[in-house]
Amino acid sequence: MHVLYLVSVWLHIVAAMTWIGGMLFLVTVLVPLLRRPATRARAMELFHLLAVRFRTVGWIALVTLVVTGTFNVLHRGFTLGQLLTGEAFAGTWGHALGGKLVLVALILASSAAHDFYVGPKATRLAEEDAPAEERERLRRVASWMGRVTLLLALGVVAVAVTLVRGAP
């Protein structure tokens, strides 16, 4: 069972690296590149293609994080019942776990809204040549949602460090 736990932790870390690394790549590499004059004409198309591909990878990573995270907590001796009743959230470690799960819930909600409503609607408006003001407003909303989700994800990493380093 210990080997399975180690595999689960490894998968959890790889999934987090994939998801957060992908978001950091978009923000630090792709967006600045697409703002250059040489790529600006195709920026929307290229960003859309990459974002749709990353959406698939991102959701696989998020599902992997939820499954492995649940397994990892159960391996630490907690039961599903304790998670559902809130017993697992007592004490310092439990409070940190609860905080992490709140951030995860916010990330899942924000990601779903961004990936399945705001982003596709912004793309559709651009393709339909909707009024520039409306397109730009939705593009800004999508952009800010992505930034907030990235900050929440970095917050999860910070809390995860306290869970591991401050673990009972």
* Helix/sheet category: mainly alpha
> What is the overall shape?
elongated
- Quickly count the domains: 1
Which band does the percent of strand residues land in? under 5%
Mean model confidence by pLDDT: 92
Q: How many β strands by DSSP?
A: 0
Uncertain spans:
none
What is the end-to-end distance?
19 Å
Task: Determine Rg (CA atoms, Å).
Answer: 19 Å
Helix/strand order, N-terminal first: HHHHHH
Distinct helical segment count: 6
- Classify the helix fraction into a percent range: over 70%
Q: Mind describing the biggest β-sheet? A: none
Describe the structure.
- Helix 1 runs antiparallel to helix 3 and helix 1 runs antiparallel to helix 6.
- The protein is 88% helix and 0% strand.
- The protein has one domain.
- It has 168 residues and is an all-alpha fold.
- The longest helix is centred in the middle third of the chain and has 37 residues.
- It contains 6 helices and no strands.
